[in-house]
Structure formats: C-alpha cells, structure tokens
Design a protein that fits this description.
alpha+beta; Cytochrome p450; three-stranded antiparallel sheet
C-alpha cells in the first residue's frame, strides 16, 4: 500500500483484494509493518462501534517498531482522542468537541472568502494554475491557522512537519519539527489567549497540560490540512472532469454540496485510516485477527463495497469517510463548510475553467493513507481581479 503502483490505481487493487480475501485483507503499510485492511462496509461499521475489542491505543504494538519507521508518526500513541480509549478518550473528545463547537460558522465562511479571494487574484490574470498548490493547499493551511489562532511562521513549520508525516519521507524529523512548532503555539496561547480553538482547549475544564495540548493540536492539524486540501482538490477534479457536474453545477441543477457528497463516497481524501489495535486475538468474518497488530479501515474500499453501493449518491451521507462510532470526526460540519465555500468561490470567479490535461493523466502521491493528487493543472480565460469586500 505504500508503493507508487498502489497510488496509481488503488480501486483496481481493492477489487483484487476483495476477490482474493473477502472483507479482511493482510497488507503491509510499510516494508516491515503488517496490518489488516478492512474493505467490507458492514464489517467496518461493526469494528468502528466496538471500542472494547478494537481500541485505538497502540502502545503495545509500537514497542516493537523502530523509531525511524516512516509510518510510525501516523500510528503511534499520543495523549489525544484519536489514539486513546476509555475515560482518556472521553476526556480528550469532550474538550475537542467543545472547542470546535465554539467556531461560529458564519464567521468561518467569511474567513474562507477572505483567504480565497487573494489566492484567486494571484492566478486569475494568468490563464492557468495548479489548483492544488496555488489554491487548495494554501487555503486549507491559512484557514486552519485562523481557526487555531496560529501565526503564519509557526504554522508553516507545522505544515512542513505534517506533510513529512503523511508522506512517510523523513517522517521522524517531520514529527520532531511538528512537536517543536506546536509547543511554541501552546506557549504563545497561554500567554496571549485569543478567540480561537487553541485558547478554548486551554480553558476547557479538562485542564489539559502542555503535552496534551500539543497532541490535541496534532490531531486538528492532521485532519485540517492534508485531508481538507485533498477534499477541495479532488472535488474540483470531479466537477471539472465529470460531465454530470461540469455543466450542472454552474447551471445550478446540481450543487457543490452534491459533488462533495459524491466525492466523499467514491474517492475519500483520507482513504485508509481509523486504526485500532485489538488487545487479544479476535475473530471476525471467520478470520482471526492477531493481537496488537493494526486494523485499518479502508474508507475508500468500504464506501465502494458492492454490498452497499448505489447509483444514488446525491444527499446520501452513509459513507464512512468521517469514520463512525466513538471516533467519528467532530469537525465534519466545519470541513464541509470550508470545502464548499472554497469551491464555490473559485467556480464563480473562473466559470470557464477546465482541466489542462486529461483526467486520466493526473497522478497521485504514494502513501498508504491519503488520496492526494500531485497537482491539478487548469486553464481558463484570463479574468479581472476580484474585489475583497
């Protein structure tokens, strides 16, 4: 799953897996990291709702994993909700949910628009752009910095470290860079609180210490940059390449929200994750899963499981892209809003935009977890700059 061949056509690989293994597949996340990949929708739902047999705490597993393992930063224990179970998970989860609930959606929409317009103005007069590197990534990055109250200089180091972790290239160094940058952010917020999610976490009754704060922010940045940029870019790819959307979205018969719903079903931006670590051997679907070995949910394969697929995607949100159960994403409404406003802004500004290469010539970055384009080149008639109100 870490090869370029897998990244080039994962859905062909999922189909082969399903034919050979059924719902549970032995895989390697890296050369020396065996795991079980769950590709059956109903099996995944059972696992995601069973935190007793499938807890998210990896501490026993990682004892045998070398520090330089490229996927370790994505899987290792952290004192946050994503990598905890039981009362610890509940404590962290409650603090994060409360902090995210403090984000006002109307203000967030205005923030996305204020960030989107200058990015569009940098490209609109040229007639061509890479929407991944010039729009989706900087927008997701800047919006998240605004939500968390993070200065650009600290945020840039966070983004660099997070990219190394997702990429699995120099991941150990990226993890160290991320920790140092977020430690600075926590110190800054303790001395200079603001109207932001970081401050809300610090003020929460859970009384998170500095280490716990650091790892809540790791989760928020991990979910807020890479998956969000992929959600924006991949949905734009869908709209620009699929005739059902390329005209109908602009004419108004289909909405950007419809395109987002379909993309979340058929090609989720975080394709394989939601990892658990059974503390004992456990039998499921006639397969005995070993203790203390990662069990990874393939949201991409489960969403496209023939047992549940339907032609009707519009308005259907039964996909597993946001996970399910006690670890379901608490920020999904914010992620939807950011992506929808970002996509609507650029489609309104550049209505004649089209892909600069055939869709089948677009390429994807290797890695077992994400579904990320290497670029999204587009062309359009040069247009006048927008006015920021």
């Amino acid at each position: 799953m870490y090869t370029q061949e897998f990244a080039a056509d994962p859905y062909r690989v999922y189909a082969q897996m399903r034919e050979q293994f059924g719902t549970l597949v032995p895989v390697y996340l890296d050369l020396d990291v065996p795991a079980t990949l769950v590709i059956g929708y109903h099996t995944a739902v059972r696992i995601l709702h069973d935190p007793v047999r499938f807890p998210a705490d990896p501490r026993v597993w990682q004892q045998g994993v070398p520090a330089h393992c490229p996927v370790l930063p994505m899987l290792e224990w952290r004192p946050n909700a994503l990598r905890s179970a039981g009362p610890a998970h509940d404590r962290y989860r409650a603090a994060n949910t409360a902090a995210l609930d403090n984000v006002r959606q109307h203000a967030l929409q205005a923030t996305v628009e204020q960030i989107a317009i200058p990015l569009i103005n940098e490209m609109c007069g040229v007639g061509h752009a890479d929407l991944l590197t010039q729009y989706a990534y900087p927008l997701a990055f800047q919006v998240l910095n605004a939500i968390l109250g993070c200065p650009p200089e600290i945020g840039q180091r966070v983004a660099t470290g997070m990219a190394a972790i997702f990429e699995g290239v120099h991941a150990e160094a990226g993890n160290e860079m991320l920790a140092k940058a977020l430690t600075e952010l926590v110190g800054l917020k303790r001395h200079h609180p603001g109207m932001d999610v970081s401050t809300s976490l610090l003020l929460d009754p859970a009384q998170l210490n500095d280490l716990e704060m650091l790892h809540q922010l790791v989760t928020l940045y991990g979910a807020g940059i890479e998956p969000e940029q992929n959600l924006i870019a991949n949905t734009l790819r869908l709209i620009l390449s699929d005739e059902r959307y390329s005209g109908d979205v602009l004419r108004g018969s289909l909405s950007v929200r419809d395109a987002l719903d379909e993309l979340l079903f058929v090609d989720p931006p975080l394709a394989n994750y939601c990892v658990s670590y059974p503390p004992h051997p456990v039998e499921i679907d006639g397969v005995v899963l070993p203790a203390h070995q990662p069990v990874v949910i393939s949201m991409a394969a489960c969403n496209n499981d023939p047992a549940v697929t339907s032609e009707q995607r519009t308005g259907n949100r039964s996909h597993l892209t946001w996970s399910a159960g006690p670890h379901a994403c608490p920020a999904q409404s914010l992620a939807y809003l950011i992506a929808q406003v970002a996509i609507e802004q650029i489609l309104d500004a550049l209505p004649e935009m089209e892909l600069a290469v055939p869709v089948d010539q677009l390429t994807y970055r290797p890695g077992p977890f994400h579904r990320s384009l290497t670029g999204l080149p587009v062309q359009f008639p040069p247009s006048p700059r927008l006015t920021l109100i």
